[in-house]
Amino acid sequence: MLQALGRRFAATGVPGSRAFTASAAHEYQSRLGQHYHNTLRDDIMILQYTPPAMRAKQEEMNAERSKASKEGATDWEPNPNRMQKSKPVRPKVPVCSAQGTPFVKKVTVHIRCREALQNKNHLLSSLMALQVITGHRAQLIRSRSDVATWKLRKGMPIAAKVELDGDDMFEFLDKLIEVVLPRMKEYSGMRMSSGDGNGNFTLGFDSSVIGLFPEMEMVYDMFPLITGFSVNINTTAVRNRDGRLLLSGLGLPFMHMRKPLTDELALD
After folding, report:
1. φ and ψ at residue 112, rounded to 5 degrees
2. Residue 8 in 3-state DSSP?
3. How far is CA 160 from CA 113, 122, 157, in A?
4. Assign residue 186 a region: left if phi > 0, alpha if psi is -120 to 50, beta otherwise?
5. CA distance 187 to 183
6. Shortest CA distance to 108 belongs to which of 164, 26, 46?
7. For residues 49 and 93, is the Cβ–Cβ distance under 8 A?
8. How does strand 157-164 pair with strand 104-112?
9. 42, exposed or middle or buried, with CB in 10 Å at 0-12, 13-18, 19+?
10. What number of helices (H) and strands (E) belong to the chain?
11. Given CA atoms 161, 111, 255, 212 in this order, what sign does their dihedral have?
């Protein structure tokens, strides 16, 4: 039996891969990309599986609930003095399959420089810092409107960004999760309530975190201005819990809020 399993592993062409997998073979160079396609994708598909009978019952209950809300048969009466706002239609949760498993589409690293309002040359430090930590040339972002309070005019350069996808995206996430976050002091993880509702997440860091990247350690003193940055993770998940499941499998920590112990439990 062990010899048969060994032949199946060898047939996949990927060392350390599973004998039975719903994912196609991918030649990713990054460790995190191989981990997703060889292990994590199948695990997420199994965890998200819902039996057909239970899924049909859930769809029936959702249809009855939406029909009752349209007919007005609800327990509460709407306030006529309050304007009823139309909510955007949320995408339907796809059926559990190998193609419907959540996946990280792209990662955007963004830096906004306030000092560029007085002198646009201050933005050069942000452009070079993004190029150092990501390995890609940053794009310049200009303002779209005029704001007299901030002395901002349309077309002024105010920020920079880099969009990563594919193998470069996995390499940056691997470096951020395995190197930068463990070196941060008093970092417990992202909150469970984070996310935009559609499976996308944003991490904000201050100016002291950018110096924790291995590429910035040798050239940190050469930058005259260091600012904070944000990392936007765009996934194909349609719900926050699916996105949290994906990111936690990749190694991103999440902070669970624990209730304080009462006096009786503390004495026990």
Report:
1. -110, 125
2. helix
3. 8, 12, 8
4. left
5. 9
6. 164
7. no
8. antiparallel
9. middle
10. 9, 7
11. positive
Q: What is the pLDDT along the chain (268 residues), one digit of tens a residue?
A: 334 434 444 444 544 455 555 555 556 578 888 888 888 888 888 888 877 788 788 778 878 877 776 665 555 555 555 555 555 566 677 676 767 788 999 999 999 888 888 888 888 888 999 999 999 999 998 888 888 777 778 888 888 999 999 899 999 999 999 999 999 887 888 888 888 888 899 999 998 899 899 999 888 888 888 889 999 999 998 888 888 999 999 998 888 766 655 555 444 4
Tokens of 236: 């194909």
Q: Tell me the C-alpha distance between 180 and 168, whole Å.
A: 17
Cα Rg of the chain (Å, integer): 24
Task: Indicate the pairing of strand 229-235 with strand 190-191.
Answer: unpaired
Query: Would you give the DSSP letter of residue 16?
Result: T
What's this model's pTM, rounded to 2 decimal places? 0.74
Q: Which of 167, 159, 207, 168 is nearest to 184 (CA)?
A: 207
What the block records as the tokens of 67 is 């029909």
